[in-house]
Amino acid sequence: MSSTSFIDLRSDTVTKPTAEMRQAMFEAEVGDDVYGDDPTVLKLQDMAAKLLGKQAALFVPSGTMANLICVLNHCSQFGSEMILGDESHIHLFEQGGCSTLGRVHLRTVPTQQDGTLRIQDIEQRIRTVKDDAHFPRTKLVCLENTHNRMGGKVLTVEYIQSVGQLCQQYGIKLHMDGARLMNAAVELDVDPAVLVECCDSVSLCLSKGLAAPMGSLIAGTEEFIREARRLRKVLGGGLRQVGIVAAAGIVALTQMPKLLKLDHQHAKLLAQGLAKLPGCKIDPEKDVQTNIVFFEIDSQKIQIDASAVAQSLEVEHGILIGVSGKWKCRLLTHYMITKENVEYVLEQMKTVFEKNRI
Ligand SMILES: Cc1ncc(COP(=O)(O)O)c(C=O)c1O
């Protein structure tokens, strides 16, 4: 089986650029972006700043670099501390870059099932004693919307505002890891700018559900973005004729958000079908809000674990899924997954589960 004939549900990062993106890349006007000369990058940054309601935006190569630049920017003072969820992407999956490269102390708060951090948990961890040499200084709180590890959960405007108010009260900054912010905006039917109004910085990935081949955007004040540009350079993220990919990013921002709702419907359909399989633990209503579906295998009912289920789906049925623990699987929908694909996946999943029933 060739790789293109797999139904790939491992992530929304597997999305390939659309025909329109490839055409836009072919036709892109370019220049040296380190000199600030690339008209396509400038256009994309301008669009992003407007979309996110901030003074300025910056194109960076990846979501990881976007978050790192924002954290380093807010926490530039020696001995800074940030507060973030224990299940957040920055904490779990970005190689600890904020501490290893940025020397920023990470203070975690338990992430709730709905992706939120409890206000009282955040408040308890804010260092209020000034100038006591025992403690780092709290500079930043980070949120994630939608929340990857918590299954694509959406943070509401009201919740984000309540964290924003807390941060203001204590004079600390708020960063939003909005790798999938557009999924949240589409699901809530709110303007993304409203969602991040009280955030001092936001990162947004172009290469997940929005299907661009690479790139993320950072948005904030003009001063913040000026400093972010310096940080991007020292991290090796200053690219030259990068309008080639920014052109795809423009298509990603203009054409793809309207398709995300369908991805969410497909994820719900997938979850509803999975819930009917004996041995598959998932609550489609509670667990699935956007394009991420986690399910657990009941080891009392099914004799193979998540890796073996994934292996069987891949080898016997041409389906790729993610493994997130011994008994936990992860599936993401995206524009390359059709309703027919979802139905096929459910049929094959049923076959695998029935064959391995205890
Ligand atoms: C919530 C979240 N933030 C940041 C990232 C990092 O993005 P990248 O893989 O482009 O570095 C990811 C990637 O999956 C993510 O899910």
TrEMBL record:
It holds the Pfam family Beta_elim_lyase. InterPro entries: ArAA_b-elim_lyase/Thr_aldolase, Low_specificity_L-TA-like, PyrdxlP-dep_Trfase, PyrdxlP-dep_Trfase_major, PyrdxlP-dep_Trfase_small. Its cofactor is pyridoxal 5'-phosphate. The keyword Lyase applies. CDD domains: TA_like. Residues 8-296 form the Aromatic amino acid beta-eliminating lyase/threonine aldolase domain. The modification N6-(pyridoxal phosphate)lysine is found at K208. This is Aromatic amino acid beta-eliminating lyase/threonine aldolase domain-containing protein. Keywords: Lyase, Pyridoxal phosphate. GO terms for cellular component: cytosol. Belongs to the threonine aldolase family. It comes from the Eukaryota. One of its GO terms (molecular function) is L-allo-threonine aldolase activity. GO terms for biological process: glycine biosynthetic process; L-threonine catabolic process.
